[in-house]
Amino acid sequence: MTTPTTPRPEGFFIDKQSPQAFRALVQVSEVVRTTASEAGLDRTTVELINLRVSQLNGCAYCLDVHTRAALRAGESPQRLGVLSAWRDTGLFTPPERAALALAEATTDPANASKQTSAYEAAQQVLSADQISATIWVAVTINAFNRVSILSKHPVPPLRDH
């Protein structure tokens, strides 16, 4: 049996290996969730950001967690299904589109022109607090993606299917 400090053949769960650091990241995410809510970002927008960033990073574990969270928050299966091609649909509102573009730019920080373009577009439809909250949501899910990817967190099958 593998314990939190016994490496598995593919590595170990860094969240279990360094629980104090992981708890601090969880606390940051709780503050960010409150910040987003107070800025007027609804839960579905936050989950769309979480999902889009997780798609870009290829984090299966976070995609699983946040797909279920988005559905619980009232997001539609149709919009979740086309999220990776959000630019090619009319299913997302201008504020959601701005938040998604900003989240993508935050996930690709080396692309300065993408950041400038996303930030300028966001200023047209989001408040300064919403822009800041969007960036914080993206930064936080990027951190969780890295924890899950590097830990190789498995995606457990749903039991009721």
Describe this structure as you would to a colleague.
This protein is mainly α and 161 residues long. The protein contains eight helices and no strands. The protein has helices at 14-17, 19-39, 43-57, 60-72, 77-81, 94-107, 112-125, 128-151. The longest helix has 24 residues, at 128-151.
Mean pLDDT: 93
**First-to-last CA distance:** 28 Å
What would you report as the Rg, rounded to the nearest angstrom?
Answer: 16 Å
Question: Judging from the principal axes of the Cα atoms, what is the shape?
Answer: globular
N-to-C order of helices and strands: HHHHHHHH
Largest sheet: none
Helix amount: 55-70%
- Proportion of beta-strand residues: under 5%
Key features?
single chain, 161 residues, mainly alpha
List the helices and strands and how they pair.
Elements (H helix, E strand, L loop, with lengths): L13 H4 L1 H21 L3 H15 L2 H13 L4 H5 L12 H14 L4 H14 L2 H24 L10
Helix pairs in contact: 2-8, 3-4, 3-6, 3-8, 6-7, 6-8
Write a compact overview of the structure shown.
This protein has 8 helices and no strands. The chain is an all-alpha fold and 161 residues long.
